[in-house]
UniProtKB/TrEMBL annotation:
Protein name listed in UniProt: TetR family transcriptional regulator
InterPro entries found in the cross-reference section: Homeodomain-like_sf, HTH-type_TetR-like_transc_reg, HTH_TetR, MftR_C
Upper classification of the organism: Bacteria, Bacillati, Bacillota, Bacilli, Bacillales
Native organism: Paenibacillus jilunlii
Domain HTH tetR-type: 1-58
Annotated DNA-binding residue span(s): 21-40
Length: 180
C-alpha cells in the first residue's frame, strides 16, 4: 500500500493529479490494474487512506482512565505524530498539500473526515459510557474533527510549519474553550 502511494505521489508531482491515471500508478508500482483496486477503491483513496486509525485507537485506549476524552485523544494523536519518521512526515505534508489544492480531493477528504468523526464518537462512547446519539459526544467529535481539518489546511498553506506543534496548539486551544 505504501509503495503504491509513493509511486502515485511521484506521478502526481510529475504529471499532476488530474493527468495521472490509475493505469500509470499501477504500472509504476509494478502491480496490475486490478491489484490497485484491492488496496484502494478510487484514485482519491491513494492519497486519503492510511494505516493510522488502528494506531490511534490503540494509543487512545491505552491512555489513563482519569484523563478526559479530549486529553486522551490529544495524547493519542500527538504520540502517533511523534512516532512518524521524517520521511513519513514529508510524505504526509506532500499528500496534505495536494489534497488541499485539488477540489475533488478536498471534498473526498471531508467525506473521509466524517469517518474519522464516527471513530471519535465510538472511542468517546466507550470511554465515557455515553450513547452514540448523545449530542455532546457528537459535538465533541465534530469539534476535534474540525480542529484537524483546520490544522491540515493551515499546514498546507504553511508547509514550513511544524505539524506536531500546530496540532498540539490547536488541541490545547480546544481544551481551553477556544478563547480568541
Amino acid at each position: 500500500m505504501a509503495s503504491i502511494q509513493l509511486h502515485a505521489l511521484q506521478l502526481f508531482r510529475q504529471y499532476g493529479y488530474k493527468a495521472t491515471t490509475v493505469e500509470q500508478i499501477a504500472e509504476a508500482a509494478e502491480i496490475s490494474y486490478s491489484t490497485f483496486f484491492r488496496y484502494f477503491s478510487t484514485k482519491e483513496d491513494v492519497l486519503l487512506i492510511d494505516n493510522y486509525d488502528p494506531l490511534l485507537v490503540a494509543s487512545f485506549e491505552s491512555q489513563p482512565a482519569h484523563l478526559t476524552p479530549l486529553m486522551a485523544l490529544r495524547n493519542a494523536m500527538l504520540s502517533g505524530a511523534k512516532e512518524m519518521t521524517p520521511q513519513e512526515l514529508s510524505t504526509m505534508r506532500e499528500r496534505n498539500e495536494l489534497v488541499m489544492s485539488v477540489p475533488e480531493l478536498r471534498a473526498a477528504m471531508i467525506n473521509n473526515m466524517v469517518s474519522m468523526m464516527d471513530l471519535i464518537i465510538e472511542l468517546t462512547c466507550r470511554r465515557t459510557g455515553r450513547e452514540r446519539d448523545d449530542l455532546a459526544v457528537r459535538a465533541f467529535a465534530g469539534a476535534v474533527t474540525g480542529v484537524n481539518i483546520s490544522v491540515m489546511q493551515y499546514y498546507a498553506e504553511h508547509p514550513e510549519a511544524d505539524f506536531l506543534a500546530l496540532l498540539e496548539e490547536a488541541l490545547n486551544k480546544l481544551e481551553a474553550g477556544l478563547p480568541l
